[in-house]
TrEMBL record:
Protein name: DUF445 domain-containing protein
Classification via InterPro entries: DUF445
Keywords noted in UniProt: Membrane, Transmembrane, Transmembrane helix
Classification via PANTHER family: INNER MEMBRANE PROTEIN, INNER MEMBRANE PROTEIN-RELATED
Spans through the membrane: 14-32, 395-415
Matches recorded under Pfam families: DUF445
Taxonomic lineage from the root: Bacteria, Pseudomonadati, Pseudomonadota, Betaproteobacteria, Burkholderiales
Gene Ontology cellular component annotations, sorted alphabetically: plasma membrane
Taxonomy, superkingdom: Bacteria
Amino acid sequence: MDPALALQRAERRALSFLLAALAIFVATLFLPEHFVTGWIRAAAEAAMVGGLADWFAVEALFRRIPIPGLARHTNILIRKKDALGDGLARFVREKFLDTPSVVRLIRQQNPADAVTHWLGSYENTRQLSAVLVKVASGVLDVMDERNVQVFIRRALDTMIDRLDLSQSAAAILDTLTRDGRHQALLDETLDYLVELLNEPQTREFISARIVDWLKSDHPKKEKVLPSEWIGNKGSDMISAAVTRLLAQMEADESHQLRQAFDRAVAGLIERLKHDADFQAKLDAFKTQLKGDTALNAYVSGLWNEWRSWVKRDLARDDSVIGARIIGAAAWMGQELARSESLRKALDAQLLDAAERMAPGFSDFVTEHIRATVHGWNAEHLSQQIRLSVGQDLQYIRINGTLVGGLIGAVLYLIAQAPVLLARGH
């Protein structure tokens, strides 16, 4: 039934009880004076008083009643709407969102066990994955590509701006050269070069380069010389000489080339730290890097490829991302089920987080309730409350009429008791 129509019927029903009391009262005025007549009249009179008092109490909640001296205490919901919102917000904060209540609720619910049990069901993890996949897909659909590209470029530029190439490189080289670590790296490099020079492919490459040199720079001599033999022998000689030099460097820690390497590294570190011209060149490189079209296009291309792959994957029934989510959730559930200490740690973390976050969360919810109620239209709010609870309030009027009549009848009997007792004597 329509709430407004149901309310009207309830109001008419309550009014009918009041009118019935009025009719009985009026009827007794024309009846001969008698004990019973007086008793009925007293009950009807009290019923009218009770019904009218409760009518006033109910109506005063929702509208202004122009009775001198009392009017300013009516229309309560509209006049006190903001105060009611403040009281509701304060009640919720003090009774539901205070820190002890929140902590007690978390402790009673034992959230770690609940999470463990929930994640132990494949159906739950599948539903979780479906929700997260849907959310991720929706986020990708609503994202503005142009804004994303601008954000990526700005983020890249910011990262490059914050990167101090000279000092960072100097710090890295300082770390690498501390306690002679760079010499160990040089030894590894020397071993690799020796192995490379001893490989047949390397010697064939050197031999081919020698032959090419003879043909380009000495074409006439090359025709009468055994070019292939010279190339092979030259390759062997070069490989042997370089291998011997590298072996000497590796065996002698004070070798002059090692010392030259030390000086070169130390000089580079010094230039990175203190050479303004060198630092300016690195800064210019950063500026060039930020404006590099190829780099920006490459980064944008990576984003587009990643986004396209994710969207295609999320649209598939056998989504890789979805399967990963299910696997991660199941693994988490298994780990929680296996480790009691992990569950206790999770509960402890949640309790600690609740203690720290409850005051701020309480203030946020309280302010949200207060601001929401303040923003409501007072008359609309009053009407909605009336439609919601108005029928029950009409029963209050009916009860007031009946209870008032009953009390009036009892009081009349008490008042007439001396007369009745006197007649009895």
